[in-house]
Specification:
10 helices, Rossmann fold, eight-stranded mixed sheet
Amino acid sequence: MGRPNWVPAGTDLDKPNAARVYDYYLGGSHNFEADREMARRAIELWPDLPAIMRSNRAFLRRAVQHVAEAGISRFLDIGSGIPTFGAVHEMARGIRPEARVVYVDRDPVAVAHSRLLLADDLLSEVVEADLRSVEDLLARPEVAELLAAGEPVAVLLVAVLHFITDDDEPARLVSTLRDALPPGSALVLSHASMEGRPDQAGPHQDLYRRTPTPLTMRGRDRIVELFDGFDLVEPGVVYLPEWHPDNPEGIGPHPERMSGMAGVGFLR
């Protein structure tokens, strides 16, 4: 079988990649057997993993639609992975056809895939940068241009801050981003949490310590603190399925099984 046209030349298809593994969890088609094998091993250790990933993606969709309906048409998606299955630009343009999106990821494989996929999209940009070097990220021309117009921007930090293991660093990073935002901007955030399942926090973090991307699960109070300077949209920071659900009856009796919390806030 030939190499698909979205795969950059020189990509090692026998080596799993986290962004493509995530695409597999979501039911996407931008992954290979090495990615699927890694996902299957992870699911053996954590059977809820695909459901958690899908719940997180569903939150992203609802949050993007919410801020787009509020009038925002500029999006900065940090830690974006590969914008394939239910990408932000597709979600946003269902409401705001003029929506501009800057995708940011530190993984060069994800960035290369993304640039090929979005090569013909004149309203989307892809930047290779690391959130941990937030000043450098903000100085990138594509990001600076997005912010320079003075129009509100939605910053998306979806399932990314738990990979910042220094406990004080997430608040610093978010506050730096906040201070660079135009008035009326929004923060869309989800974060792995031990709330509701404290007995699982240790095993879940142990699982990720075996990968190149260890994570730190945090409690609700610490996640709420990340919204300092933003007015939280009701119902505040809640379990992933509980944030503006499409069908409240479908949340189920144990939303805490999704092991993540999420919220949206608008800049004061």
